[in-house]
Amino acid sequence: MLDDKEANKFKYEEANRMNKNDTFCVFEGVGKTKMTIISSTRAVCPAPPSTKDTAELYVTLNNQDYSDDDVPYFWYKAAKLYDINPANGPTEGGTEVHIFGTDFQKGH
C-alpha cells in the first residue's frame, strides 16, 4: 500500500500521462476553464467572468470525474479609484494617503 506522499506522487504522474485537454476547473452555474497542473499538490485555472457573487468550484483530471469538496469561489467588483490625496510624499515614506473611489469592499 502507498503512503500519502507516494499516493500523491502517483496521482500527479498519472494526471501528467492523461490527455492535458481533460483537466478543468468548473465554476458551478458559471463555466469551465482549463486547469494547469503545477505539482502533485498544486494546480491553477483562471476564473471566468461572472455576474454571480459565488459558485462552488470543482476540478476534474479526466473531464468525467469531478471533485466533490464543495469549495466556494467568490467574485467581487473591482474598485474604481478617482483621486488620492496627497499625490506625493517624502522618500522616507510614512505619508497617510487618502484614497477616493467606489466599490471598496471590506475583507477583499
Structural class label: mainly beta
If helices are DSSP runs of H or I spanning 4 or more residues, what is the number of helices? 1
Number of strands: 8
Query: Nearest-angstrom radius of gyration?
Result: 21 Å
Overview of the structural elements:
There is one protein chain. The strands form 3 sheets. Strands 2-1-5-6 form a 4-stranded antiparallel sheet, with no helix packed on it. A two-stranded antiparallel ribbon has the order 3-4. Helix content is 13%, strand content 34%. It is built from 1 helix and 8 strands; from the N terminus they run αββββββββ. The chain has a domain at 4-74.
How are the elements arranged and paired?
Blueprint: H1 4-17, E1 24-27, E2 31-34, E3 36-39, E4 42-44, E5 54-60, E6 71-74, E7 80-85, E8 98-102
Antiparallel strand pairs: 1-2, 1-5, 3-4, 5-6, 7-8
Looking at this protein, list some descriptive labels:
34% strand, 8 strands, four-stranded antiparallel sheet, 108 residues, elongated, 1 helix, mainly beta
Could you give a quick summary of the protein structure above?
With 108 residues, the chain is mostly beta strands. The chain has one helix at residues 4-17; strands at 24-27, 31-34, 36-39, 42-44, 54-60, 71-74, 80-85, 98-102.
